Fold these 4 entries.
Entry 1:
Amino acid sequence: MPQKQLATSDQLRELLEAERARFTDQCVPLSTKQLQSLKRASEVAMVGEVAVQRNTPKKRARTILRELWANSPEIFVLCAIATSPSTLGELKASDYLQVLFRWWDDVHHPSGLNDLIKTLQHYLPSLSDNEDTERGERSASSPSLCATLSLSDLLSFLQALPHSGENDTTFMIHIPGDHQESPFIEISSEMCQGLVAHTLERTKETRFKAMPHTRDWT
C-alpha cells in the first residue's frame, strides 16, 4: 500500500505512534520488510551532501533522518520503519523535532525497542560528521563512474554466474513508491568489478577479431 503524503509534523507523529504502540517490553525482531526500510533510511542518512544536492526530496529526507539519529536512535528507528525516504522528503513542516520530542517525552518507551536497537548495529548509520564531510568532498573531486553496457555483455556475464544451490547469486531490486527516484538493482562491489573486467575482456576479443591479420610466409 503506497504511503500517504506527509503534510504536517502531526501526521508524522501519528505514524510513529502507531509503530511505537506495536512494541512491548519484549525484544521482537523486525520483519524483512522493516529491516529493508531501516537499511534504506540509514543509507540516505549516511550519503554525502554533495550526492543529494540536485535531489531536493532526498536531501530533505537526509536532513530529517540525520537530525533524528543524532538526537534519538529510538525515534530514528520508528521513523525508518514507519515511512520511506521519498515520503519523508515531502514533509514541508519545520517543527518536526519539537513535535516528535514533545510526543516522545509523554509516551512510554518500550524496553523491547531499546533492546532491539542494540542488535541492529549493522543496519544503523555509522558515519560520523567528519567522515561524512570527507565523503562529500571526495564525491565532489571524484565523481561516480558511468559507462554504457550492452545487453549481450550483461547476459554473457550473468550466464557465467552460479544459478543454483547454496552459491546462487541474488540481487536486491529497489522500486520507489513514487516517480521521483528511478528503480535500480543493487549488486556487490566485487560483482561490479567482475562485470567491468568481463566487459573489457570481451571488448578486447572483439577488437582482435576485427583486426586484419597478415600471413607469415617465413
Entry 2:
Amino acid sequence: MASKKKIFDSVQMVREIRDAYYRIKSDPNYDRREFEKIKKKWAHLLEQQEKIKAKKTIPTKRTESK
C-alpha cells in the first residue's frame, strides 16, 4: 500500500509555533517577524493540503436509469 504524501503535519506545526512563542516571551532579541513567517508557512501548507483533499472528494454526477 502506498503511503499518502502529507503536506501538513499538525504535530510539527504545534512544535514550531510553541517554540517560537516561547522564544518571543523569553528572548528579548527574538524577531517577532520570524513568528509571523512560521504562521504564514503553516497556513500556506494547510491550504495546499485542503486543496488536495477537495480535489479528491469532488462528487461525480451519477445518473440513475429508470
Entry 3:
Amino acid sequence: MQTVLPPHLLFLFLSFFFFCAASPPFPLPLSLSYCSPYASSPCSTRLSCVGMPPSSKKKAARILRHVSKVHADVNEKLGRSYYDYDVVHVEWGNVDDYEIVRKIGRGKYSEVFEGVAVASGDRVVIKVLKPVKKKKIRREIKILQNISGGTNIVTMIDAVIDRATGTPALIFEHIANDDFKSLYPTFTDADVRHFFFELLRALEYCHARGIAHRDVKPHNIMYNAQTRELRLIDWGLAEFYHPDQDYNVRVASRYFKGPELLTDMQDYDYSLDLWSTGCVLAGIIFRREPFFHGRDNADQLCKIARVLGTEDLYKWVAKYGLTIDPALQAAIGRHARKPFNRFIARGAESLANADALSLLEKLLVYDPAERLTATEAMAHPYFDVPRAAFEARLRTGKEAAAQAKNKAKLDKLRKPASFNKMLDDPQPERWPVQPELYDEYELRGR
C-alpha cells in the first residue's frame, strides 16, 4: 500500500529541502566564504558580506551606549538655532566675483580650484560641490558659519552658485600648503610636535563647539612649513554631536577609520577624530604612511587587530554588546599586542621617541571612552615645548596680535551677507549639475 504524506507535512518537507539546497552549510569554511569574490584572503572579506549590517539597518538593543566624556551637551545648551541645519537658508553670492586659475584637488564630493577674487585680486580656494543632497550642503555651511576662522580652522568667505548650471561652490581663504608626501619626510622631532599641537588646537576648538570633523587625514590638514601655520579643512563630513543620536559609520577615509566605524558602533563621538589623529601621527613617526593599510573595511580591522591585539578588541566589544560576524572573527584570528617600538624605522629613531610612543598608546585605543580628548592630548608631556611656546605667546600678546591681523585680512574678503541674511532657497532637493559641466566651469575662469 502506497503511503501518501498529508499536505501539511509535504509542504514542510519541501520547504526544508529547498532551504537546504539554497543555503550554504554553516559554519562556512573560511576558504569557501559565501561572499566568494572576496574569499582569496581572509582579511579581505567585505564587511557587508560577513554580517556587519549597514547603518540603515535597525540595531538590536545593546547592553551599553557610548556617551562622550566631554562636550556632550554643548549643542543642547547652545540651542536649536545653533545646530539645526534643516532650516538654514543661504543667500548665494555672485559666481562672477571669482575666477578659477587652476585645479588643485578633487574628492568624492567636490572639485577644488585655486582662484582669485576679481575685485581685489586676492587668491582664494574654490570648492565646487558635486551633485549631493541639499541637506549635506546646508550642514557644511551651517558648521562653517559656527566655526569658520576659529583656531586653525579654514575660513569660508563666501558661498556662490552658478545660476546657469545650478553648480554651488564654497569660497575659502587661500592657504600656502606643502604637499604632505614631500613634507612629512623632512619633519624633525620639533616639527612633528608643533604640527600635532596645532592640529589638536583645531580639534579642541571644534569639539568644544559640539562639532566632530569625522575626516581627519593628511589631505585635510594644510600646513605651511615656512610660516608653521596649520588649517584643518574640508568640513563636508563634519557633524553636530548629540549623545542620543546614532550616526552614519560610512565616514572618514579607510586608513583613518576608528574601530567604532568598522564594527558599526553608531553612537560614536568626537573621539573618532583622536583615533584618526593617532593614525596620522603613527604614519609620520614610523615613516609608514598609512600606518594601518587595509584593502577594505574588514581588512582594515584585521590590520588594527594585528597591532593592538585581539584581547582588548574583544573586551571592548563585550563591554558595549557589539557584534562581530564569526567569519570576520575567524579572519582576524588571535594576536598579542605588538609594542610600538617594533615599528621604528631606521633613521627615524628621533621621531619615535618615548614621549611620542606614550602619546600614541593613548590615542590608538579601541574604546573611545579611554582615548585622550584633544585637551588631554595637548597636556601630554610630548607637547611640553610647543605648549610652553604657545603660553608665552599668550602672555606677551603675540598670539592675540597674530589672530587680529589674520582676522582683518580675512574680513576684507568675507561676505557676511552670504551667511546672515535668510532667504528661501529655490534650488531642488538635488543640485541639477552634471559632472561634465566642471570642465566648462574650469575653462570659464581661464
Entry 4:
Amino acid sequence: MLHSSLNIFIGSTLVGILLDLLNVILEIHLLGIIRDCCFPLLTRNMFCLNHYIARVIHIQSEEKNLAI
C-alpha cells in the first residue's frame, strides 16, 4: 500500500515538474513573439509621441515669442 502511494506521489511530482517546464518554455516563446511583434510598434509610437510633444512645445514657445 505504501509502495503504490509512493509511486503515485513520485509519478505525479515528475509530471508536475515536466508540466512546469513546458509552461516556462511556452511563456518564454510567447514573450519572444510578443516582443518581436509589439516592440517595433511601441518604439515607433513613442518616437511619434516624442515628436508630437516636441512640436507642441515648439509651437507654444513661438506663440509666447509672438505675444511678447
